[in-house]
């Protein structure tokens, strides 16, 4: 499932990576992790728990790339000596590494030599960097700083829009304001605590993050998720997808000033979140996914759930149809924020953004997990334009499919459990065997994946002595957000909210 | 366009009647964990909590709801000692002081709460009919923004209560702060607060904003937003439901007259 190959040096690593990509593999991330200096660790488990221990500060650095292929996610790794000051950058050879190498520089101080622009990305650097940069020169050009405190209810991010007044020749993004240090936080946690953190890494995709994290843990421990739990996971993951796509539709309708449409999609989204909270107590599906399975199952409530979702599906798809027939709305989406199929393919654009540009690498299809092999996941229909319109079309198709997948998954669930998994008084806990397999403690490293509403989420997890020594999330938001630099050809300031909404990403997942 | 008019009528009135009348969804909401009054336990229950919300001294157990991320691990392990608090609304669903989030209540905090309430009431007496909100994300996971956004939707519709969102801090009366207090946001958060005219009220929305949650103690965050801006209302939850946020808002502006729980006076 997850192979690791070690290369002797950086040049060999880049060579191996380029060979994989030429073979049809997709570049899925580049990371650096400081390995512990085993001599300094001196049997002290306290040092292991404390991520800032000196043992960790002086260790050698592992530089590794993830490549997605049909057989799973492959890890290509090389070790840099502990006193390394720099290495030849990957970005000039592979543009998709642009943000990844900036993060490596922020986190380790190691310089990717030849990187086109090493400004801080997730850690606020020198205040000098706060000066408004200017990439385009010309008469009357100015920069509009938008953020980090923005109008309306948004996550903190700063967009620096360089404009002569209408057109947007260049956009610069600063995501470091809300960097929380998530990746470092995993170090020293128990696996059970790690799931809780994964759920809070990108809150609007809690289920997908918990799934990807648990898949990594399950690959390490070799535990098999029971069939019922695998189906319940699909139910929650797909409900999360529906809620996220409704959120995007709501924001797009809001940007166009369609008050009724905005209210309708907000209503539908609220209904979906209430269905989720009815199933598990959390409106974001938190606490459901655990290593080895799930904690609750709709069980006896399944009939009522199917009826309720049937109602919702009918109303949502009818409103979606009306929206896609509202010409004043469509005029704003057509041709707005186009991402060329060529760029989508080369970058490996994930989720709806990739699909809208004709590039589809859906983890549910390419590397199926949990209940998906039992269900009929359809590949995305062919979309080429790559504009905001195509992205919304993809979301509606995905939402319709999600409803179908939830229905299919529920129909395969055995109807033997009481509501919410609460056992009748005096009974044993609700069939731990049917919902949750035992995950024996084991050491090792694995990459887990899941398809979030935003696209593929990856977790690279290493466990030693029952604790996580390295946990690296890679959200689709991080991988895709950098593409926003490239989609403003011909678009003007008033298109900005449409383009941002149509991307449907979360800053929390990008800034970590 | 006319189609949308018809669609808008399709589901009838969907808006909640709360706080005028009780709302079932608000009342059945599963809130942060509370320690049961009088439960005696060994000190080892403290280790159940991933965020250190459980305090056990002299056999008495208390839960700091400001640290509770609602994972439910303690409820599953010791249902005799811990239970979910029921309902998203009422005076007990948000705290006027940080220590007021500790349950069972610490007796000596009563006075502090009374003082905080009197101070808040004096400030908010000017906020009569219309209140304007400003939101700042100081390192949230993104879910709190969804729940705040929901207040503008047809179900919660805060406009009916005279509450509006405003783009400029200069027009804002209430500051909703989400997130664990990312170090990079401290300056911007403070500037937003300073930009608001007096009187102003700050609500820390969510367990992350109250204490930092799972990230507490890391140098990349400030362990909640209390150190950056003076918080008036502390609202736990991971994330808190829209009803909880609405409830905290009404507490903050002195508009909460409906008090079913009768807790806190």
List the helices and strands and how they pair.
The complex is a heterodimer of chains A (512) and B (265).
Chain A: E1 4-6, H1 10-22, E2 26-34, H2 38-41, H3 45-49, H4 54-57, E3 61-69, E4 72-80, E5 86-88, H5 98-108, E6 111-113, E7 142-146, E8 158-163, E9 170-174, H6 182-186, H7 191-199, H8 206-221, H9 227-255, H10 259-280, E10 289-290, E11 293-294, H11 302-323, H12 327-333, H13 341-347, H14 351-356, H15 363-366, H16 388-412, H17 432-435, E12 444-452, E13 455-464, E14 467-474, H18 476-481, H19 496-503, H20 507-511
Parallel strand pairs in A: 1-4, 5-6
Antiparallel strand pairs in A: 2-3, 3-4, 7-8, 8-9, 10-11, 12-13, 13-14
Chain B: H1 2-9, H2 24-27, E1 30-35, E2 54-57, E3 60-64, H3 73-77, E4 82-86, E5 102-103, H4 109-124, E6 131-137, H5 143-150, E7 163-165, E8 174-178, H6 186-195, E9 201-205, H7 207-211, E10 233-235, H8 242-252
Parallel strand pairs in B: 6-7, 6-8, 8-9, 9-10
Antiparallel strand pairs in B: 1-4, 2-3, 3-5
Structural description of this entry:
The complex is a heterodimer of chains A (512) and B (265). By secondary structure, chain A is an alpha+beta fold. Helix content of chain A is 41%, strand content 16%. Chain A has helices spanning 10-22, 38-41, 45-49, 54-57, 98-108, 182-186, 191-199, 206-221, 227-255, 259-280, 302-323, 327-333, 341-347, 351-356, 363-366, 388-412, 432-435, 476-481, 496-503, 507-511; strands spanning 4-6, 26-34, 61-69, 72-80, 86-88, 111-113, 142-146, 158-163, 170-174, 289-290, 293-294, 444-452, 455-464, 467-474. A four-stranded mixed β-sheet of chain A has the order 1-4-3-2. Chain A has a three-stranded antiparallel β-sheet with strand order 7-8-9, with no helix packed on it. In chain A, strands 12-13-14 form a three-stranded antiparallel β-sheet. In chain A, a hairpin with a 2-residue loop joins strand 3 (61-69) and strand 4 (72-80). In chain A, helix 8 (206-221) packs antiparallel against helix 9 (227-255). Chain A is globular and about 60 Å long. Mean pLDDT of chain A is 87; it is low at 39-55 and 416-431. Chain B is α/β, with parallel strands linked by helices and 265 residues long. Chain B has helices spanning 2-9, 24-27, 73-77, 109-124, 143-150, 186-195, 207-211, 242-252; strands spanning 30-35, 54-57, 60-64, 82-86, 102-103, 131-137, 163-165, 174-178, 201-205, 233-235. A five-stranded parallel β-sheet of chain B has the order 7-6-8-9-10, sandwiched between helices. Chain B has a three-stranded antiparallel β-sheet with strand order 2-3-5, with no helix packed on it. In chain B, helix 7 (207-211) links the parallel strand 9 and strand 10. The radius of gyration of chain B is 19 Å and the shape is globular. Mean pLDDT of chain B is 87; it is low at 258-265. The chains are: A alpha+beta (512), B alpha/beta (265).
